[in-house]
Amino acid sequence: LTLSSQVGGRLKSYLGEDNTETLIKYVDDIYLKFGAPNKLYGIGDEVDEIKRKASLVELHLIPVPVRHLGTEHCCSVLKAMRDYLIPRLEFKLEAMASTLIVDNGQVKGVETEAGERFDCRYLVLAPGREGADWLSTEETKN
C-alpha cells in the first residue's frame, strides 16, 4: 500500500489533499486490522539522507511510506477481509453489469447482461479498466 497523496493517481484532485490523506489513513487502518504487517518502508533516516543527497544535485525525492504486503501477507489479509464480509453482504462475481437502477438520483440496484436484477441498499461495483467507460456513461445518464 502506498501511503501518500503525493504520488500516483488523481484522488487528490477529486477530494483535496486533506480528505485524501484522511482516506489513506482510514484504508491503512483497515489493512492493519486485518493483519497487514506494521513495518513501513520508504521512510526513515536512510531515506532522509538520500533525499538530502538528491537535493545537492537539484533532484527532488518524494519519500513515500509503503506498507508492503507481499505474497505471504496479501493472501491472508484478503482472506480475512473476505471472511469478515461474506456473512454481511452478497457477492456476485464475474457478472457483467449492464444498467444501474437509479431512482431520484440514488442507485437502487443493478441489472446484469444476463438479465438478472439486483435491488440493493448499497452497491459496490468493481468494473475494472475494461468497464470504466461503461461506468462513466452510466453516471452521465443518471
UniProtKB/TrEMBL annotation:
Name of the featured protein? FAD dependent oxidoreductase domain-containing protein
Taxonomic source organism = marine sediment metagenome
Read off the lineage from the record. Answer: unclassified sequences, metagenomes, ecological metagenomes
Span of the signal peptide: none
